[in-house]
Design goal:
The protein is of the alpha/beta class. 21% of the residues lie in helices and 23% in strands. The longest helix has 16 residues.
Length: 141
């Protein structure tokens, strides 16, 4: 197997593999009870793997760009079983910030530090923002 074909596995140094295995077992149990779990596939590219997506029945969500194509940073392997747009847009409101995109204030100015200056509109990207979008779509169905 060539280096470029190897799957890279990233684990935070402080987490031991036995802890990861226990978490995967717990995720399996939760899914078996009928609870849906959405896990961000990861932002390390094509040949990466989020170990928690090894749990049975979890929804591993990859990121799509604005054109509906796989985002270049998104993990893409056989365990990714869901794709959603990767962008979180935040808009300034009269009282704070609209994070959910419904025009209502979700975070008030008083809930942020006075040193934080968020522009009137900005967006951030990643599989961490694609996963909640998958959940919201499923809840609406």
């Amino acid at each position: 197997m060539k280096n470029k074909d190897k799957i890279l596995i990233s684990v935070i140094d402080s987490i031991k593999l036995k802890d990861v295995a226990q978490i995967i077992d717990n995720l399996d149990s939760i899914c078996a009870s009928g609870t849906k779990i959405y896990i961000s596939a990861g932002n390390k590219g094509d040949k990466s793997l989020n170990l928690y997506t090894l749990a049975d029945s979890v929804r591993s969500v990859g990121a799509l760009n604005n054109k509906g194509k796989k985002a270049s940073f998104s993990c893409d392997n056989s365990l990714v079983n869901r794709w959603e747009n990767d962008k979180l847009e935040i808009h300034r409101t009269k009282d704070g910030y609209d994070i959910l995109g419904n025009g209502k204030t979700d975070v008030t100015f008083s809930q942020t530090g006075s040193y934080i200056r968020i522009p009137s509109f900005f967006n951030i990207r990643g599989t961490s923002f694609a996963s909640p979008k998958a959940l919201v779509k499923d809840l609406k169905e």
